[in-house]
Amino acid sequence: MALHSARGKLISVIGDEDTCVGFLLGGVGEINKNRHPNFMVVDKNTPVSEVEDCFRRFVKRDDIDIILINQNCAELIRHVIDAHTSPVPAVLEIPSKDHPYDASKDSILRRARGMFNPEDLV
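That's the V-type proton ATPase subunit F sequence above. Prediction below.
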């Protein structure tokens, strides 16, 4: 917790229970000195405003370098994710068990594609 600078930066997760539990079992979970976790479990009863607030908190934290978010959760707060233009923390949209990944919805991927010519990606 206080040693995060010595160990490096954190990965945070916003997603369904299965996704969060999987990453927590993989050792991603942390609670900082202010007792704030680096993950949020989202279910059908979670208000969109809570997902939005959590994402904004993760973006402001200096101990987080990557935010993993289920794509279906990202769709709920697309306007907030689109407004995040800083490279750090990096935002990566990932699939969930019930919602497959759709590259056409990923705003970060669309932005990255715009930086390269199609021939560069071959």
